[in-house]
# Entry
Amino acid sequence: MSVLRRLFPHPLLSLLLLACWLWLNNTLAPGHLLLGALLGAAIPFVTRSFWPEPLTVRHPLRVLEYTAVVLYDIVVANLQVAAIILGPASRLRPAFVRVPLELRSDFAVTVLASTVTLTPGTVSVEIEDDGAGRRVLVFHALRCLDADDMVRTIKRRYERRLQEILEC
# Structure
């Protein structure tokens, strides 16, 4: 392993942390650039033992597409949840939904579960083993009219894209 790779085990994470630091502080002052760069280097270095498998992004441009889809879905879901909450209680149709996963890596499954939780009106509850060695994501939906349609939507909009980005 090269010296550079040992010092920066996750270079994309380091850049993301630097960008977040500068964005949150709303400045490009030299002190903040330096502190953000130090945090961006130190946090992945200190937490490298928590990453059991190396993260490889197969299609970096697909990350932008995935981010756009998730942000769009968050905005739409916010409007839907507002309508549900402000409307009659009869519009609520809470349900637990089970999504059989094709994702293999722990990181990809975690990103999918986090995406579901980020979208208002849904929250990831558990990752189960279906007994045949496959994983199942269990989530709670505030309004579920058709569980099969929700499963298809999650697989099409999120899981397929995550497979392209993070897996072969």
Observations:
- The chain is about 60% helix and 10% strand.
